[in-house]
């Protein structure tokens, strides 16, 4: 197993709350709220674009 995969497995319980596909309306609303919060915090800072893009995809699936 690669170190990257091992790290992902170890940290998944923490990040899954943010990066999992919404299954319910409540999950969806939480994801929208997180995306809004993130945009408020980072604005146009491109160093966070991957996280912003990922949350956006989860909202618009």
Which helices and strands appear, and what pairs or packs with what?
Elements: H1 3-19, H2 25-42, H3 49-59
Helix pairs in contact: 2-3
Give your account of this protein's structure:
With 61 residues, the protein is an all-alpha fold. It has 3 helices and no strands. It has helices at 3-19, 25-42, 49-59. The model has no long low-confidence stretch (mean pLDDT 93).
Features:
61 residues; mainly alpha; 3 helices; globular
> How would you sum up the major sheet?
none
Which descriptor suits the 3D outline? globular
Uncertain residue ranges: none
Domain unit count: 1
Provide the β-strand percentage band: under 5%
Give the helices and strands as they follow along the chain: HHH
Radius of gyration: 13 Å
Rounded average pLDDT? 93
Beginning-to-end CA distance, first to last residue: 30 Å
Summarize, please.
The chain has 61 residues and is mostly helical. 75% of the residues lie in helices and 0% in strands. Helix 2 (25-42) packs antiparallel against helix 3.
């Amino acid at each position: 197993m690669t170190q990257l995969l091992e790290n992902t497995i170890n940290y998944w319980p923490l990040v899954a709350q943010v990066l999992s596909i919404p299954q319910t309306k409540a999950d969806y609303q939480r994801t929208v709220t997180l995306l809004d919060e993130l945009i408020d915090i980072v604005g146009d800072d491109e160093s966070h674009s991957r996280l912003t893009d990922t949350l956006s995809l989860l909202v618009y699936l």
